[in-house]
Amino acid sequence: MITSRDNQQLRQIHKLRRKRERDASGLFVAEGEDLVAAAEAAGWAPEILLRAGDDVEPELLDRVSALGSGSRVIGVYRQRWSEPRGAVSLYLHAIGDPGNVGTAIRAAHALCDGPVILGPGCADPYGPKAVRASMGSIFARPPARAPLAEIPGAKLALDGGAESTLAEAVAALVAGAHESMSTLRRNSRRNVDIDDAGAPVVLCVGAERDGLPAAILSAADAVARIPIAPGGPDSLNAAVAAAIGLYELGNRMAADV
Amino acid sequence: MITSRDNQQLRQIHKLRRKRERDASGLFVAEGEDLVAAAEAAGWAPEILLRAGDDVEPELLDRVSALGSGSRVIGVYRQRWSEPRGAVSLYLHAIGDPGNVGTAIRAAHALCDGPVILGPGCADPYGPKAVRASMGSIFARPPARAPLAEIPGAKLALDGGAESTLAEAVAALVAGAHESMSTLRRNSRRNVDIDDAGAPVVLCVGAERDGLPAAILSAADAVARIPIAPGGPDSLNAAVAAAIGLYELGNRMAADV
Question: Is the ipTM of this complex over 0.85?
């Protein structure tokens, strides 16, 4: 039973709040029964596992909690990174809010087979808020890190002010032999090679205000928008937009390819 | 210039962190330039408006910030409640997380014409985290409060383990004359009266684990699920699920009705 706040494991947990410490050690913290259970279910062995009352005095565990919710169990795990592969994956560009990154990881785990691929400027997916928002999906489907150009597949960019609606652009990208080339030409920025029907699709989502940079929009095989009602807000939450895009892609790919 | 922490306006802002105080006064707080600008754009006059450096010493404003982000402006507004009307609205049941309530309000503002209707057990939409997550949509589209039975329209319940997928159920609910009655019978729990084509639709979303109570599921005109990939998580974030449902309803109603 740990009874001193100077305990080395407690000090390490506390330090792992900082991204620099997570980067240097390759470790991260998961707080709470649900996340620790999700880690175990996905076959992750903890480097440290402290249960309040069993391994450590509860108030000492509270002191190192980053979430301030009085966690009764805290685990430390080694970060894993996936390869950017899958029939459908999600690429995030400059999504700085850790809750959005975690929610996107959970949505991708539910709605597609590929990982979330983190581009430049994204929040650390292994920070405490992102891990929490992933609700354990970070263990089942660890994220990937890669420049967009190195990810195989057709790129569908979600943008606020783009030319075709999401459903049209998704249909164009995934329809393949079920659609004529003229449809592909009309809705896609480039002509998707019809021989690539069934090839991977990467949904690209940018930050809520700035959106995707021009370089990604111009390089994308199709650019799409989610229609917003008249008088509606300027944008959707980034994780919400990503989830709608993955839902549409999933439905279309199941139906058409 | 306010220079004392005992200032009555600062004390009131501080007290409005508490739901009891918000309920008693009918007021709430919005922090930050973006939210105050959204209130002004929607025609809401503040009861109190304090700008750091102009009206109050910056460190005193920081002290009463509920979000801990060093807001440079804080406004106090009077709560408003909408009537539960619209071609498509969103009913939330027992969504206790204020961030999810706010994100759902923003998504509904983007994706449907009706308000978010709060059922029992939902977080206060006028709490600081919910207001923040709404990104100003709470001013453009204030929420409503009503028991589900008093809301006009067909009810579409989103459920984890339901009989038809979302796209099918939405098609059944909104298709009207474009679909045969046999389709409606197959996909809907009840027969939606075909004369009601174009009638309001209320999307019902429950908490992430418990889902909707049996009474709502059995009273719904249709029950649907968002397909989750094999090996995926048990559920989606409630606001994400609501947004996907609203997106599907919006597309179908635009296409079919």
Answer: yes
